[in-house]
Amino acid sequence: MHDNNPQLSTALAAVVLLVGLGLLLRQLLPGGDDPFVPGKAFYSSDDGATLFIASAENFPPFDHEGKTAHRVHVFTCDGGKTQIKGYLERLSPVGKEKMRALRESQKKNPGKLPGLDPELLANIEIKRPGDKAWIKQSDVAGASKIMDIRCPDKPDASADPLQP
What percent of the residues of the chain are helix, what percent strand, and what percent coil, each to the nearest 5? Predict the structure, then answer.
């Protein structure tokens, strides 16, 4: 990655892990009164070509009308008028079990924030719509490229996450 600048590599890894933790918290704590924690999420059963909205309680991939559905992280650069389908997300079977266990733990301890679980991050996979290969979210270099969603007309500006 940045072999000549280990501090930059460490900082980038920390940012990706923090983003991963934020995404993990969004999945762990769907619904409720927190405006930053959605009760709904975007999904697609056709590699991001079309979207549907369903409960954020779903563990992707899951069956939707006979097709495999994945979570889609959607972004905007204009307050929601235009949607950018940033990347798709799925859990491995181990990831689904880890997520279930974390949600159960959260229900028992609702005020306590969960810790960052490297095994869970290693079992969350992401890819851009149209890509063939899924990348483990724990792959800092690969995941950071996929999760860095930029505004099409302003490549220096990051797109904003959009909730349904």
Answer: 30, 30, 40
